[in-house]
Amino acid sequence: MIQRIVIAGLVLITALYAFQKPFREYPGLEYTKYKLPDDYQTPGEWTFARLMYPPVAPYYGGVEFFGSWKNGGSNWTMDYPRSDRHISLAVRRLTRIQARSVEEPVDLDDHDVYDWPWLYGVEVGHWNLTDDQAKTLREFLLRGGFFMCDDFHGNIEWDAFFASMKKVFPDRPIVEIPNQDAIFHTVYDLDDRYQVPGALYMETGLTYEKGESGKTPHWRAIYDDRGRVMVAMCHNMDLGDSWEHADNPEYPVKFSNLGLRIGVNYIVYAMTH
User: Fold this and answer.
1) What's the 3-state SS for 17-43?
2) pTM of the full predicted structure?
């Protein structure tokens, strides 16, 4: 019996590795032709999957430098791919998870999001999901997927985020995550959290953006019927920048330390809950 279980497990792992798509890199807003790690073609048991999405209209901050968000150079590429590779490296060093060294951009229109159970969205204050994309994201989450979103600030960006998230879950509330939730204690105990700013901090010394409504950090969530976090929202924070600039001596280490710990907790939680 034990031998059958072991064989079945090996078959499952082999299947997961086999279904990983060939790596593709898109031009980003900040980086193009970023140096690839030597082992970028080596598959892993966990991969940083980054959500591709259509942006809101340009006068609300939407960006499409290459004719379409599907070609890169859009809001979804902020911090990409440097941020992705730094958090993937942190997962390797701080856990026993065999993380792939490079990221996977995921287009909901391709309907293969189910192959990547952990999904990250940046600058979601600028996203504009179609009805079909919202339906696919909802199905992904209800099947056990996990979505973390980050780097959106103030009331205007929250409203833009909420408009699309309401399409995904019109009947589920968004709530503040209580300190005792397992997501804050899966690897690190994160009771003493604080606002994690973006790279703008290095110029302004301010931890917040977008005026008064951007001053208070929020760790929010949407839960499933079993009490599992499906969507984790880091509002009025920029964890992506804290990962991206983890090797930048001008960016304070205390922010990268917390940003990486939050990321590791969310990733391990997603894989174990």
Assistant:
1) HHCCCCCCCCCCCCCCCCCCCCCCCCC
2) 0.91
All structural domains of the chain with their residue ranges = 29-272
Gyration radius of the chain over CA positions: 18
| ∠ CA 149-150-154, rounded to 5° | 120
Say which residues have a Cβ less than 8 Å from residue 149's Cβ, sequence separation at least 6: 120, 121, 122, 124, 161, 231, 232, 233, 234
Letter for the amino acid at 264? V
Identify whether the C-beta of residue 98 lies closer than 8 Å to the C-beta of residue 92.
yes
129-155: per-residue pLDDT in tens? 999 999 999 999 999 999 999 999 999
Per the CB < 8 A criterion, the answer to whether 36 and 93 are in contact is: no
The CA distance from 118 to 146, in Å, is: 5
Q: What are 216-246's pLDDT values in tens digits?
A: 999 999 999 999 999 999 999 999 999 999 9
**Residue 54: what are its φ and ψ, rounded to 5°?**
-75, 140
Superfamily of domain 29-272: Domain of unknown function DUF4159 (3.40.50.12140)
The pLDDT-based confidence of 22 (bands split at 50, 70, 90) is confident
